[in-house]
Write a structure and sequence with these properties.
The protein is mostly helical. The chain has a single domain, classed as Winged helix-like DNA-binding domain superfamily/Winged helix DNA-binding domain (Arc Repressor Mutant, subunit A, Orthogonal Bundle), CATH 1.10.10. It has 7 helices and 3 strands. α1 packs antiparallel against α2. About 15% of the residues are buried. The N terminus is likely disordered.
């Protein structure tokens, strides 16, 4: 082993920036169990790295992430690719005002059309245009390839485990305390 390699190049045991933070806290507060702090610190760093890498793909298609999310929700809804603004807001966990801004931008870009709801003339329906359909399909293809590449450092089994653990954590965080 060369002097430059004091660790075994195993990314699960090679020290990282989070280890330095945890070590400093352990020195200052040895009374605290910092296991969860380390995990959350790494999750935060992963998020900081994944976010811009995903945004880059959306930018290639002239979209912001939130606009992609709207187009993707419409596309996933199936033919005729139409939803109400309130349903979109609920799906994307977004305020009505925030949704209106996204819809305005997408309508200006020719990606969606608004029309009066035939069943309730007081509300609108949002429909994916042919241009929006083509854009979101191409963006989703590129986004899937990008995310697959970003997570290529994990084996298929590790990726399945990560997904299962993230699902379990999300369930815990979103289930009201009993």
């Amino acid at each position: 082993m060369s002097a430059a390699h004091t660790h075994d190049d195993n990314p699960t045991t090679t020290p990282d920036a989070v280890d330095a933070v945890v070590a400093a806290w352990r020195r200052e507060r040895p009374d605290l169990d910092l296991t969860a702090i380390a995990a959350v610190g790494r999750l935060g760093r992963v998020n900081l790295l994944l976010g811009p890498a995903q945004e880059q793909v959306f930018t290639e298609f002239g979209l912001q992430r939130g606009e992609f999310d709207v187009l993707a929700a419409l596309r996933r809804s199936g033919a005729p690719y139409t939803l109400s603004p309130s349903h979109l807001s609920d799906l994307l966990m977004l305020s009505r005002a925030g949704m209106t801004n996204r819809l305005d931008r997408l309508e200006s870009a020719g990606m969606i059309e608004r029309s009066l709801d035939r069943a309730d003339r007081r509300s609108f329906q949002i429909r994916l245009t042919d241009q929006g359909y083509a854009t979101v399909d191409a963006a989703m293809t590129r986004h899937t390839a990008n995310v697959t590449t970003l997570l290529a450092g994990l084996t298929p089994r590790e990726l399945t485990t990560l997904d299962a653990l993230a699902r379990k954590l999300l369930h815990h965080l979103t289930t009201p305390a009993r």
